[in-house]
Design goal:
With 145 residues, the chain is mostly beta strands. The protein has a domain of 100 residues: Jelly Rolls, CATH 2.60.120. It contains 1 helix and 8 strands. The strands form 2 sheets. A 4-stranded antiparallel beta sheet has the order 1-8-3-6, with no helix packed on it. It has a 4-stranded antiparallel beta sheet with strand order 2-7-4-5. The longest helix is centred in the middle third of the chain and has 5 residues.
């Protein structure tokens, strides 16, 4: 006894339909992550970064789940020889701050740093002389942060 797989719907079996029949279902949202999207939100801020040992580290970026990237610029060194950046507060609080250290070249007023492409927060402290001024442009996608 052979059974035709395209037989008409019989009985109460909800899984079997007539040949060519269509059933309505809810659409499934699909997000193509390979396609480049433009960030919809941006915030800009300028921070005075105190010298290590005199002031406390400054949190220049909050944790942001939908961050695209943050562009950080050393605007003025004001006597500091370098600025230390870290995603962890405890690494920049000590007497010898640890993290990613940047020093602009001689005679350079503005120094563009690599983009911060992380969800994590960012803390900064100046070392070696005096305070520094840092500008941050934080870009993100729309959604709940």
């Amino acid at each position: 006894m052979s059974q035709d797989t395209y037989a008409e719907y019989t009985g109460e079996d909800p899984g079997r339909y007539e040949l060519g029949a269509v059933t309505e279902v809810e659409p499934v949202p699909v997000h193509d992550i390979s396609e480049r999207r433009t960030p919809e939100q941006v915030s800009c801020m300028t921070w005075n970064i105190p010298q290590a040992g005199i002031g406390q580290p400054v949190q220049i970026l909050q944790r942001r789940r939908l961050r695209y990237k943050a562009k950080i610029t050393l605007v003025s060194m004001g006597g500091a020889t370098s600025v230390v950046f870290s995603p962890k507060l405890d690494t920049v609080q000590g007497s010898s701050p640890q993290g990613c250290t940047y020093s602009p070249g001689a005679g350079i007023q503005d120094s563009f740093l690599p983009d911060w492409e992380s969800q994590k927060p960012c803390y900064a402290i100046a070392i070696g002389g005096g305070p520094a001024i840092v500008s941050v442009q934080d870009e993100a996608y729309s959604g709940t942060n």
